Amino acid sequence: MRATLLVNIGSPEAPTAAAVRPYLRAFLGDPRVIDMPAIPRWLLVNGLIAPFRAPASARKYAEIWTPEGSPLTVHGRALASALGATYCTRYGRPSLDDALDEHADADEIVVVPLYPQYAGATIGSTLDALGRALSRRARVPAIRVVPPFWSHPAFLDAVATVARPVLDEFRPDAVLFSYHGLPESQVRAACDRGPREGCCDQSTPPFCYRAQCVATTRLLAARLGVEPLTSFQSRLGPAAWTGPSTQSMLARLPAQGVKRLAVITPSFVADCLETLHELGVEGAAEFRAEGGEELRVVPCVNSHPAWVEGLRAIVGGDGRE
Questions:
Q1: Are residues 162 and 135 in the same domain?
Q2: Structural contact between residues 10 and 23, judged by C-beta atoms closer than 8 angstroms
Q3: For residue 320, what pLDDT band results from cuts at 50, 70 and 90?
Q4: N or C: which end of the chain has fewer CB within 10 A?
């Protein structure tokens, strides 16, 4: 008997400071996410970030929360239901442990990290948690992990299918492809070729997050017939992060004549705080403040039928572009 687990990052259980605080502690306490020694990381997360960031984050979550719960969770469960799979999260509930308990009798488990591009903070952390969870079990089934699918035609086609009618109706002056950012130190550590000028534009090493994002933009832009503009959002802390930043792009595009901007977010497969609030609310306000007229965020693939069938193909095969 085979079980398929769809794993995403997770959400707080409620849009309240009390619920956001433990979620931030779990998420930011992961050494894959904040790569600093354990004691300084613990002091930073528990003494500064979680206590002071939780109330502000909770207010933002409250603005996007649905009657059924967090959008990320709602879309994840809908996708899993359509595929006959089980939805679980890296941080929060249902956890990876919960999902493994649910399928204790399975003789094969297919794990699908719902992150199109490779990053240690996402896929690496998921595999860490999977290994720890399996190490506590006497019965360990056969495990297959679906690799990053940024170049899989089924993923690219699903994103294009969702985006195309929005672009046709909105008729933007430009399309920006915005990805979750990473500290440059993490990108360099994972990329075996090391930082080189223009490298990300010329090749896609198997573990280089930035190069995979740039390539995703190129492949999607070709499908949609738009200029490939790539940026990175969600910066945290003073360290150098991948660039250019989405915020800097939103500031300068209006001066270049872009008054109507569409934003596609191909590092996210489900709408969440980063797409709905960081871009749809805060980013739109920043864009207007710089002279833009309207910013529209294209929905993620969520549980769109094209993505349901696309992910079914990805889980069952390994087609690449």
A1: no
A2: yes
A3: very low
A4: N
